[in-house]
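Lecture 7 notes: from sequence to structure.

We start with a single chain of 315 residues. Read the sequence below before looking at the structure.
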Amino acid sequence: MELFPPIEPFKERMIPVSSLHTLHVEEVGASSNPHALFLHGGPGGGIEPIYRRFFNPEKWHCILFDQRGCGKSTPFAELRENTTWDCVEDIEKIRVNLGIDSWVVFGGSWGSTLALVYAITHPERVKGLILRGLFMIRKKELHWFYQDGCSSIFPEAWQHFIEPIPETERGNLLEAYHRRLTSSEPKERTAAARAWSIWEGSTSKLYPDNKLIDHYGEERYAEAFARIECHYFMNAGWLAPEDFILRNVGRIRHIPSTLVQGRYDMVCPIMSAWELHRAWPELDLQIIPDAGHSISEPGIASALVALTEKYVTLV
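Now the structure, written as tokens:
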């Protein structure tokens, strides 16, 4: 199925969620329609206009927001008061502010992590889950992408990723990047942010996309994306134990849920999706045979649009 035509929000607002953070929130469709919440990836990625196009505006009221520290939310690239649990509380504050009782939650990559943690915490507020490119923020997932694993599939992109880090610090690249991304030296911070972000952009699609890579390399985008991602990953998402999601699927097994996973997803490998499916047999796992990680890959995008058309009948 094709994406819906480009559309502008019918309402945008800034919602204060703490004495420090204010979130940019936009609404698409009509407020009288069934409600859906879109959770972007990263963390730190922010929302993009293409995300609105996964929902039929004649059928849905879709809420999208820039999570703490990214996009149009303020303060930009801020790490203080920025945790998974802050994000879960933010979702509830947005829901209450908009007067919504419950909604279908749609999240990909880090957005799938946040969607699952939110649903586990507030199962009564979630009528359905549409997930993509599963990520559970576990050590083995982080090691695969930031230390040893994906490096063997994209060695040329990996070489660019490790260049800002001296050989003596390459035994723990997360720590080495965290030092630079929190540095007081702007040039060092920017160089690390761009290298970190470009690595993800270079590996997100089955066929590398130069436009996507260029976007990830934009200085402002990279600053929030890299800083916030590394901040979350250094802290294991503040989830304890690290298999928090797998241990708590019993709280959400009754919720209609589908996971769309690219067979050749190098950012969030399919094994995590399979492990979740084994723990949660009711989860509808749809494996796209000719796709990587990106939401914009044709097979993934088509499957997600089909799901929003299906799930609107549940609410």
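The chain has eleven helices and eight strands. Keep this in mind for problem set 3.
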